[in-house]
Design brief:
2 copies of one chain form a homodimer.
Chain A (H helix, E strand, L loop, with lengths): L1 H9 L15 H14 L1 H13 L4 H6 L15 H25 L6 H8 L2 H38 L3 H25 L5 H28 L17 H15 L8 H4 L8 H29 L10 H10 L4 H34 L17 H17 L4 H31 L5 H57 L13 E7 L8 H10 L2 E7 L3 H14 L5 E4 L7 H14 L3 E11 L12 H9 L5 E9 L3
Parallel strand pairs in A: 1-2, 1-4, 2-3, 4-5
Helix pairs in contact in A: 2-9, 2-12, 2-14, 3-10, 5-10, 5-12, 5-16, 5-17, 6-7, 6-16, 7-8, 7-14, 7-15, 7-16, 7-17, 8-14, 8-15, 9-12, 9-14, 10-17, 13-14, 14-15, 16-17
Chain lengths: 634, 634
């Protein structure tokens, strides 16, 4: 019955042979691997602007006109240079990763590259950073997707932020459950289905930017809001600090870039070239969208508002009214963000499986479920993402400080690994060009990682900095356990063959009834030394049992154990030890007769003594507890 | 370790012989048994006044002066006749219960009396009503106790009701946990300790009433608030209805009256006389306090206010300033209410134990814990009371509609049982006086029950009216299960003696390692037909195992089962059925080797296959699953 229910919910089990693969060309590859990277543009501009001008809470918007908010807008113009700097960083990372793709045509995540070239410690740190980032990708993407949705309602109805926060958490959790469900069913991602929202998003963004830029050149932008209280003149030092702050915030745009390099195998032959072309295309698209959106934000003097997103504000400013295209933009943004979360559900369980295979995570993460997916990894990822969503009230901005650090750390490990590889492989004909590219990549991403840690330390980065070593510590502990276990369980020698042992069987008897018969029968079947044991909880019942037992005359001896404190297990455990001492090299089996009712809930009405006794004997070698059930027929 | 923790928290186990009893005289008996009944006066007047004039929410109080609230106060005067009517009802019930005490010197609760005289159906309904009432007594008393506490803070600080609601729920839950804990520790109620707050409460109430009445006669009452908007002239019919409504609400005062009759055994010899005297004293005290408080409420024109209690208002009005005596009154009220909740923790587990003994509730409720108390009953009562407190937001007024009905139903059953008893015993010398007393009692309480159902049907009584038959249905179902079980388990005949059975043992093997050895050894010890079984989840591992097994050459045959869907249990269950069919009248034992790590959390890292297979075979007769553990030494 449980099986049928499971089949109904998750689909009937799939044969191991039914795994097939679809090879991807550039357009399909772009759609599959780009959602994570491209979707970052949906929140990157928000982050830059928040760093530059702060955020307006919704209550101040509804109470006052924008004019009186008193935000310092003098630095808004800096968003464009910051965006250019990020685009430049993007180019460096893309070029570096082209080297990784070339070197690892079988798919080279940061863990693989670091393990191959830098040794276990670095690889474990990279793995920890990657695992954290998969979880954060799910949390951030889902929350940003829900923000795109609620921004639409906010724009239409002007609902209060407080209500939205609870609703957002609920919707985000719902989305996580839905995505996890789809992945547990193991619906093979048909690239064509996924391509649709990805290309719709690309089309929407490019159109929006084209129209917006054209407007800004040809016409005056439609009614740019006017701000009072603008202050001019920031000191040079403060200016530089602000630039780095905004840059650090904007680095969120680069999350998800590495996806292509993990999946080279999935591309059509020649897979390396196809993957590389896809990588470059993806980087260019991301750069264009980021620069375009940031430019438009500046033109329309968009400032971050609680409950609304920058993309949503730009769309409304450019389109100048809430027409249908605005809704298309919001919904496509939401779709690509949910797709981005979905890609983590592919990556996390696979990485967890690899770590489990290497003995760094519990083996259960290697189990392939009925539907040919790593079910345990999917459930684990969904649970952790859900915890983050709840803890951070589904706020993208609150989650951000923890996000980009892990990404850049794993970039650094991958690039450093490539340098080490080139150095080792070098010899007579070193790949100097590759080494320089990866060296620059490693250096730049390391610098950015440090910048991120410094900039966001107190606002959440500390959680990551504490978690990473803890996760690595856990990896090592698990590994040590498996190693010592493996050592202890080494294949038995050929000389040693298992022999029958000496054996005493104790049958626990509460009163003489038919329920005890199968237990006594089984006891007689497995040993010649059978003894019935009764723990006295109620003196009257004991006297009755002794009388009945004598009258019955089965020939099996009955031992009565006193129990002054009415405990069943105490006297029993003491007696078992006594029996155990009678013979050497023997086993004691305790048989517990249990009544098994036809309806499962009827079993709640019987004392669950077996569970307690089993738990107590679990850690004692040489004692076996067996439950023998008497099945009621009514 | 768990044992030590348990001892530390709940105290070390008590010897069965250590149960002693202290016999009570009238003053101590009054203290022990009266808290439930007397504490009712802390909320009964509130209920009467709410029925007559409604309740003022705290927001309207803080915003407007009392004068503008616009409540209709013309009917306030009716509270005194209503209180007299309730006192009269109280007298009837007390006189009736004196008969019960005489007839059942061993302690006669409604369940016992009904079972003896009216048959099982009535007795089960009475039992259901009693169980419900114990739960409600805990919930109501605790909430009223917390209300007395918060009223004190309200009076002092004027805190908002919204904050108080959450705080009240939290405090009430805390109180329930604390009372349950005390009862689980089984601290023998020392009558002297309990007597203190009970007599303090009685002293406070009597002093308050004396001073108040004296004031109202000699002086004008100090500054009675003046209300505007008073309407005069209610029609006769509406007048009558209002009277009955207030009367129904006020019946809450009678809850807990029956306690003495349940505990006659606890009194000093001559126990019947001592108990009867206690009963009359308790009734008189309750009557005086109820009438006194109601009169003072009228004199001071007290109206029910959210967040404050009537007793607290009266105390402040009479004392005319918040002096120390006001706080003593509030704290003693709280204490007696918590004591009332505590008495339910004596009654509920005892009644549940009696019902379990009679086969109407699960047997676990008969278990006597380490500290000589019925622990399961205590936990069950606390859990249900906690659910009520949360569901009804710790509001006494919201809980009330469900409360008194059960009490009056059980009154009715007790009295009707007494009439039936007198009729049967009658013969030549019928006890006409007793019959008349109990007949009147039964009739009056039945009428009140009907009135309560009608009056409070929609506001909560429906829950009781639905629950009662459901609980009785549950009783009967449980009883039927135990009956059929008993029938099926009848003592085996003397001719039948258990014999050894034919026996096949299957040992589940994943790979050849030392962990499998004890399992194979045990298998050889218990049967000559041993077979190793391997389910193929990974073809490479299977080939390796077959090679290893052959090289090892233990002589035990190895069977490999294919599993196209990667399920362990599916192919295994199929094969077990196959093996079972090979021989007739045999048993199949499945042995599962398990690795047991030294640290318990290490075991989380191993596949828990045994649990799944055990669960699946639980309902299949003739199959036994035994786990044999290999204990790791590191």
């Amino acid at each position: 019955m449980f099986k049928q229910l499971k089949s109904f919910v998750f689909g009937s089990p799939l044969d191991s042979k039914s795994e097939t693969e679809e090879r991807l060309n550039v357009p399909l590859g772009l759609a599959i691997f780009a959602s994570d990277a491209l979707s970052s543009s949906a929140y990157a501009t928000d982050e830059i602007l928040i760093a530059l001008v702060g955020i307006i809470s919704i209550s101040s918007v509804s109470n006052n006109s924008n004019a009186d908010v008193g935000l310092d807008l003098s630095n808004l113009f800096m968003c464009v240079p910051v965006a250019f700097a990020i685009a430049f960083l993007l180019a460096i990372v893309v070029v570096s990763y082209r080297q990784v793709i070339k070197a690892y045509p079988g798919g080279g995540g940061a863990y693989t590259v670091a393990k191959d070239n830098l040794g276990p410690s670095s690889s474990l740190l990279a793995a920890a950073a990657l695992l954290l980032d998969y979880v954060l990708t799910v949390a951030v993407s889902v929350c940003a997707g829900i923000a795109a949705l609620t921004a639409m309602f906010h724009a239409t109805t002007g609902a209060q932020a407080v209500i939205e926060e609870h609703a957002s958490v609920g919707l985000a959790l719902l989305a996580i459950v839905a995505i996890a469900y789809v992945n547990l069913r193991g619906v093979r991602e048909s690239a064509r289905v996924i391509a649709l929202p990805a290309y719709l998003f690309i089309f929407c963004m490019l159109s929006l930017i084209t129209v917006g830029v054209f407007q800004s050149i040809v016409y005056q932008p439609p009614q740019p809001p006017v701000y009072h209280g603008v202050q001019i003149g920031v000191e040079h030092l403060a200016f530089g600090l602000l630039f780095f702050k905004a840059f650090a915030h904007g680095c969120a745009a680069l999350t998800g870039i590495e996806a292509v390099s993990n999946g080279v195998k999935a591309f059509k032959e020649p897979s390396v070239q196809t993957a590389n072309l896809t990588m470059v295309l993806m980087g260019s698209l991301l750069g264009v969208i980021l620069l375009g959106l940031t430019y438009l934000a500046l033109v329309h003097q968009i400032i971050p508002v609680e409950g609304d997103t920058v993309v949503s504000q730009i769309a409304r400013a450019v389109l100048n009214k809430q027409d249908v295209f605005y809704y298309v933009i919001q919904l496509s943004t939401m779709s690509i963000l949910l797709l981005a979360a979905n890609t983590s559900f592919g990556g996390f369980p696979r990485l967890a499986m690899i770590l489990a295979r290497d003995g760094y995570l519990p083996r259960q993460l290697m189990n392939v479920g009925d539907r040919l997916v790593y079910s345990n990894g999917i459930v684990l990822l969904a649970s952790m993402a859900a915890v983050l969503v709840i803890a951070f009230h589904a706020s993208v901005h609150n989650l951000m400080p923890m996000y980009a650090i892990g990404v850049f750390l794993s970039f650094t490990f991958a690039q450093a690994g490539m340098v080490a590889r080139a150095l080792r492989a070098g010899g007579t004909n070193p790949d100097v060009k590759g080494m320089v590219i990866n060296g620059v990549g490693a250096l730049v991403t390391l610098l950015v990682s440090c910048l991120l840690c410094l900039e966001k330390l107190t606002s959440g980065a500390w959680i990551v900095l504490i978690s990473l070593p803890m996760i690595v510590f856990m990896f090592r502990n698990i590994n040590r356990h498996y190693e010592t276990m493996h050592h202890q369980l080494a294949v038995p020698s050929k000389e040693y063959h298992p022999q029958a042992l000496d054996h005493t069987v104790l049958v626990l008897v509460a009163s003489l009834n038919k329920g005890v018969l199968p237990a006594l029968e089984y006891a007689k079947s497995i040993s010649k030394r059978v003894e019935a044991v009764h723990v006295e909880l109620n003196p009257e019942a004991t006297i009755q049992l002794q009388k009945d037992w004598e009258a019955w005359g089965s020939g099996i001896p009955l031992t009565v154990l006193k129990s002054p404190f009415r405990s069943l297990s105490g006297p029993l455990l003491k007696y078992i030890d006594e029996v155990d001492k009678r013979h050497e090299h023997d086993i004691v089996t305790i048989i517990i007769p249990e009544i098994m009712a036809k309806k499962w809930w009827h079993n709640l009405m019987h004392n669950q003594t077996a569970i307690a006794i089993k738990t107590m004997l679990m850690f004692k070698p040489g004692k076996v507890v067996t439950t023998i059930r008497y099945h009621l027929s009514e």
